[in-house]
């Protein structure tokens, strides 16, 4: 028996469970996988970016078309709160040069272990390998290693993730169950994902090379950032942040020398080069790395001998691509439960007592701390509202 059921053991679900436990509820968290927070742990393998240490207005600007429920959640649990939360779990944190906040351990496992231990101390029941199969009336049904199990809670928080990285648990299969309850869902779309590029053979030796200090433009969106050339195309934070525009069909344009204007670039190219090769000349006078020159040759080559023409190509290089990487390869997804289907507390209007949080909601945010902060914030928001409802 439980007062409250949380389905999904990622950051949003665990945050909801803690909010419910703090309110005095008897809580069960059920997850289909053998361990909790599997996508959270994967994110931490390359350095767990918890949040951003920046002005709150600037932080909020990274959430396009932010619905009021998401704004309310972030108002109640923003970047400073995330940092305090990590410290409370015994994790020292630091802010990097780009305002990104990391635990000093640079991975998720110590934080997750401490969090699960704290939840257990608060009486939360953690059920692993419990796959939710739907409802029978007000009863939630599960397939478990011990056979079918049911729970009939007063309130339920769904924190089932999006539809990417299915092997880690976010398979999107819950969508059919909610659709069966009459909830009109938004289609899943890739977010924070790379671009597919069909490279010519000469690019092979540049696979894995970073593109630093570039300006990326897609439609009306432009930013300074970084990317990486991979065998599959272009990856990295600069690409991920432009996913919504690229998803809408915008072209990608790169400025390979954003700190120089076209006239300065043209005058440098026009300098005498003697017996130096053209590519070495560009590398020396413009400080262009070999991978940037290779991109020029890939998308604008052969390189123009007219300095003014080449300067314009360096400042605005169109990238031919074949669209976004497949949905399951995306770091996160848009689509899912629309905010119009939710009340102010993230309760499903069509299902009183059932709340939703995290990436299964229809919102977009880039990586770099924005995605994780909003998952934590919506989990807390839904958990508090569920406790008040129950």
Helix and strand topology:
Blueprint: E1 4-7, H1 11-22, E2 27-30, H2 38-44, E3 51-52, H3 56-60, H4 68-76, H5 79-88, E4 93-95, E5 100-103, H6 109-121, E6 125-127, E7 131-136, E8 139-144, E9 147-151, E10 155-158, H7 174-179, E11 186-191, E12 195-196, E13 210-218, E14 221-230, E15 233-235, H8 237-241, H9 243-247, E16 252-255, H10 262-269, H11 278-286, H12 290-300, H13 307-315, E17 317-319, E18 332-336, E19 354-356, H14 370-389
Parallel strand pairs: 1-2, 1-10, 2-6, 10-19
Antiparallel strand pairs: 3-5, 4-5, 7-8, 8-9, 11-18, 12-15, 13-14, 13-16, 14-15, 16-17
Helix pairs in contact: 1-14, 4-14, 10-13
Strand order of the largest sheet: 12-15-14-13-16-17
Helix content: 25-40%
The profile of the biggest β sheet is: 6 strands, antiparallel
Number of helices: 14
Distance between the termini: 14 Å
**Inertia-based shape:** elongated
Strand element count:
19
The average pLDDT value, as a whole number, equals: 95
Radius of gyration using CA atoms only: 24 Å
Low-confidence stretches: none
- Structural category is alpha+beta
Strand residues, percent = 15-25%
